[in-house]
């Protein structure tokens, strides 16, 4: 059965929090952090925390120091990167580690993934550009992750429609899961078809499949 643990650690920018949900038969670990507008309780992070451990993937959620301190405005990217690095350094997974996050947290994961020894990055609702400003693209940041990357994007995300994303480059292809009708929060309207339950299932299935491919597992997901 998955087990939940929570600890607070110091970073160069104040204490941050690590909340882990592990599986007794874990064969991979996914480390996730939140965006600039919310915390680790966001819907998509919660869905993955509940869904992946039963499939053998432990989930660790990183709460940045600014959020732990109760602040409402995220600091500069350099502060986020240093804080994320300091908190991840406290982890000692015995299985392959993936890093990821939602929105601004996905950007952090892309910037720090390779240096932290991750074998893959999971970018949830990657903010390819500010809404209505495609000329301010962050594609170089996305492609600079240095490890294979999965983007999970809502079809109606104003921060970047799925068609705007590149296919990747060289030996580091960019994989994508598109969630029909979903917005930047990876949520759909109340009476949408597919509904939120189906979208949540697609989110878990897509991340699970990406992680399985990266670690070379070909066993059925229920084993």
Automatic annotation (TrEMBL):
Q: Which PANTHER family match?
A: TESTIS DEVELOPMENT PROTEIN PRTD (PTHR13136), TESTIS-EXPRESSED PROTEIN 30 (PTHR13136:SF11)
Superkingdom, taxonomy of origin: Bacteria
Q: Which GO terms of the molecular function aspect are on file?
A: hydrolase activity
Q: What is this protein called?
A: Alpha/beta family hydrolase
| Record domain KANL3/Tex30 alpha/beta hydrolase-like: where | 28-211
Report the Pfam families cross-referenced here. Answer: Abhydrolase_11
**Organism, as annotated:** Mumia xiangluensis
The protein's UniProt keywords, in alphabetical order, are: Hydrolase
């Amino acid at each position: 059965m998955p087990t939940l643990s929570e600890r607070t650690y110091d970073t160069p920018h104040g204490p941050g929090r690590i909340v882990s949900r592990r599986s007794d038969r874990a064969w991979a670990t996914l480390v996730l952090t939140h965006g600039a507008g919310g915390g680790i309780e966001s819907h998509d992070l919660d869905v993955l925390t509940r869904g992946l451990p039963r499939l053998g993937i432990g989930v660790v959620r990183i709460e940045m120091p600014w959020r732990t301190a109760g602040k409402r405005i995220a600091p500069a990217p350099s502060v986020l990167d240093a804080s994320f690095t300091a908190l991840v350094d406290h982890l000692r997974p015995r299985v392959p580690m993936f890093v990821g996050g939602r929105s601004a947290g996905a950007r952090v994961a892309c910037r720090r993934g390779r240096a932290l020894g991750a074998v893959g990055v999971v970018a949830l609702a990657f903010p390819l550009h500010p809404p209505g400003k495609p000329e301010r693209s962050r594609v170089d940041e996305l492609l600079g992750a240095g490890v294979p990357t999965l983007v999970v994007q809502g079809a109606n995300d104003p921060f970047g429609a799925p068609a705007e994303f590149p296919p990747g480059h060289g030996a580091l292809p960019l994989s994508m899961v598109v969630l029909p009708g979903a917005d930047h929060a990876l949520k759909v309207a109340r009476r949408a078809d597919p509904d939120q339950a189906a979208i949540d299932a697609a989110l878990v299935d897509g991340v699970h499949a990406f992680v399985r491919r990266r670690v070379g597992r070909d066993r059925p997901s229920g084993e």
